[in-house]
Amino acid sequence: MNELDNLDRAILAVLTRDGRIPVAKLAERVGLSETPCTRRLKRLEQDGYITGYRAKLSRRAMGLGVLAFAQVRFSVHDRTLADRFEREVLAIDRVISCHNISGTADYLLKIVATDLDEYGDFMRDVLRTLPGVTSVESMLSLREVKPDDGLPAY
């Protein structure tokens, strides 16, 4: 990867707020003409700084009123079991992020559900039945103070 300069960082900062901005407007915002801005944008994509573009969906508008975090623990720490767990988690749409963590738990999952009943069913019928899982501790989000809007462009 190439080193980022201030113009690259400015481009990334604008794109994190508006990924659909036309190149002409992006160039104007960062103080470049279109051609050099386009070149930088393509390089940022090719170098892996920009991994894709997507729409940010409203959880509430999608009918997903529950946001939960689940700490998942294993009693046996076996690589094959962990690999199976991770493969299965990747296929579950309700799990919107999964992190292998340090501390008393093995994984931290961010999960969405329509309501508490559906979340309870998901816990009983899906999460607790995954390979290796021996215990799950849930924490429900009462209010989202700062949403995940992507990485800052330092």
TrEMBL record:
Annotated keywords: DNA-binding, Transcription, Transcription regulation
Start and end residues of each HTH asnC-type domain: 4-65
Superkingdom assignment: Bacteria
Pfam families (UniProt xref): AsnC_trans_reg, HTH_24
Any one of the GO CC terms: cytosol
GO annotation, biological process: regulation of DNA-templated transcription; response to amino acid
GO molecular function: sequence-specific DNA binding
Keyword DNA-binding part of the UniProt annotation: yes
Name assigned to this protein: Winged helix-turn-helix transcriptional regulator
Source species: Rugamonas rivuli
